[in-house]
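Quiz preparation item.
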């Protein structure tokens, strides 16, 4: 009896808790304060380090990062999802290793006397294609708008131009810019892989993709060499045509008519790569089993993608995108695993692979669910949650019974600006793991930051830990810990 009384008096200052049927907050301050910005920054620094070679999904570097994550989950007492897969859930994921930056050289076109060739500077002016074939191609440049042939939509960027044995210069995206039902038929044409395959079908020798962002979500095609170029380089290519690059896309989208033409300059692109078509990647998943005999059969899923864009010519660390989100998840997982208050429902922490390659990991997770679909209360996704001053919880206004747990926790303990929004239909191609869960019918929310503090280097070599604000990461992990724990213990959810 004395031991019980001593335990109660020791525990009371640490814990504030009430029956979960009353839907009031639960907090273990010891675990809450276990979440430290120093630890989270250390996690992000580890994942961003050169030993993982940019965490390209399917590569040995990514697998090593996945094993590091699984080691932390095991260390803290999380368990694998029941089944035969352990912490790792494997799926096919081909990848291409870029051996060196290659080169892009602009050559004078016909009649351009006195012009000198220009070798582009890496990484300031171009990135090698993450899925370029190994080799060298040369040809005249042809601007082909969005690189789309859509007869059903009466639109064809390739109409009236010849791209055989030439280098096509194209844009990402589609000419329709609205987010409504009229965007739906354009979705198949928005994928990078479609654009590359269409150019190849028409006999193009290679491709220049406008936009200086590394991207493994493209096609590897035998003998097809490509590179990403900056917008200023696109302007250089247009010199002598009487056109400016900045005017081209608006000209297409305003009238929904192609603006395609021969540029007359010539380009040589070289690449040295190795393609691995039979590679596999994995999601890493760990659970904290629910403590209630009945509610433990229900689950809450928290996810963030672990992969980044690799090392196309040099290391792209992927600190903000998305070592930050993974570090936030680790902080919340550690706190919840050590908390004296246990979640009544099961909580699943998932680190997705293949997001940058085409949302492979999340697609696999809904096709072969980690938990029975009808027993998942909601899913919350984190991507690039490591730079800012406030939070936005998308989907929260559509699910007020979930949102209130985060809102109340923030008001009492975090004190950051927190906004929310309703779930909105996106008619374009899915771009986040959360969108895959949403399309599959899960209640899905997304935690984001607001009020960017430092420059964002999206899919660029400067996406390192210098671009993170550790304080917002600490508060993100604390908000997750409190919000998820209280939702997991809400018997009326």
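Solution:
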């Amino acid at each position: 009896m004395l031991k019980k009384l001593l335990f109660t008096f020791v525990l009371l200052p640490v814990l504030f808790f009430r029956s979960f049927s009353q839907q009031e907050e639960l907090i273990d301050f010891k675990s809450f304060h276990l979440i430290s910005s120093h630890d989270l920054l250390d996690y992000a620094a580890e994942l961003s380090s050169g030993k993982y070679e940019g965490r390209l999904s399917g590569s040995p570097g990514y697998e090593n990062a996945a094993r590091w994550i699984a080691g932390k989950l095991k260390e803290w007492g999380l368990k694998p999802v029941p089944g035969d897969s352990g912490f790792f859930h494997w799926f096919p994921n081909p990848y291409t290793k870029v051996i060196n930056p290659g080169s892009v050289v602009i050559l004078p076109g016909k009649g351009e006397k006195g012009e000198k060739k220009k070798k582009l500077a890496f990484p300031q002016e171009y990135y090698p294609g993450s899925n370029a074939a190994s080799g060298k191609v040369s040809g005249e440049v042809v601007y082909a708008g969005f690189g789309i042939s859509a007869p059903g939509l009466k639109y064809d960027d390739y109409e009236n131009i010849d791209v055989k044995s030439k280098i096509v210069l194209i844009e990402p995206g589609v000419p329709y810019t609205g987010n409504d039902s009229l965007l739906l038929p354009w979705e198949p044409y928005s994928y990078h892989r479609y654009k590359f395959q269409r150019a190849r079908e028409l006999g193009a020798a290679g491709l220049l993709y406008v936009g200086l962002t590394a991207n493994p979500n493209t096609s590897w095609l035998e003998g097809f060499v490509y590179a990403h170029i900056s917008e200023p380089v696109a302007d250089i290519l247009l010199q002598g045509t009487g056109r400016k690059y900045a005017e081209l896309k608006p000209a297409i989208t305003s009238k929904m008519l192609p603006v395609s033409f021969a540029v007359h300059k010539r380009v040589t692109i070289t690449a040295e790569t190795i393609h691995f078509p039979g590679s596999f990647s994995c999601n890493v998943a760990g659970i904290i089993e629910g403590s209630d005999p009945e509610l433990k059969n229900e689950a809450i899923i928290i996810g963030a993608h672990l992969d980044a864009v690799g090392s196309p010519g040099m290391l792209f660390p992927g600190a903000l995108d998305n070592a930050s989100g993974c570090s936030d998840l680790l902080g919340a997982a550690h706190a919840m695993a050590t908390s004296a208050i246990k979640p009544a429902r099961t909580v699943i922490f998932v680190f997705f692979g293949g997001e940058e390659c085409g949302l492979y990991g999340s697609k696999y997770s809904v096709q072969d669910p980690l938990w029975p679909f009808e027993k998942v209360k909601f899913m919350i996704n984190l991507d690039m949650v490591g730079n800012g001053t406030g939070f936005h919880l998308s989907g929260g206004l559509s699910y007020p019974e979930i949102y209130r747990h985060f809102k109340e926790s923030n008001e009492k303990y975090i004190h950051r600006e927190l906004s929310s929004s309703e779930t909105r239909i996106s008619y374009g191609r899915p771009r986040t793991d959360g969108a895959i869960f949403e399309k599959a019918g899960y209640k899905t929310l997304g935690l984001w930051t607001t009020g960017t503090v430092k420059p964002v280097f999206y899919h660029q070599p400067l996406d390192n830990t210098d671009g993170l604000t550790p304080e917002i990461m600490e508060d993100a992990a604390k908000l997750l810990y409190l919000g998820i724990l209280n939702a997991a213990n809400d018997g009326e959810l």
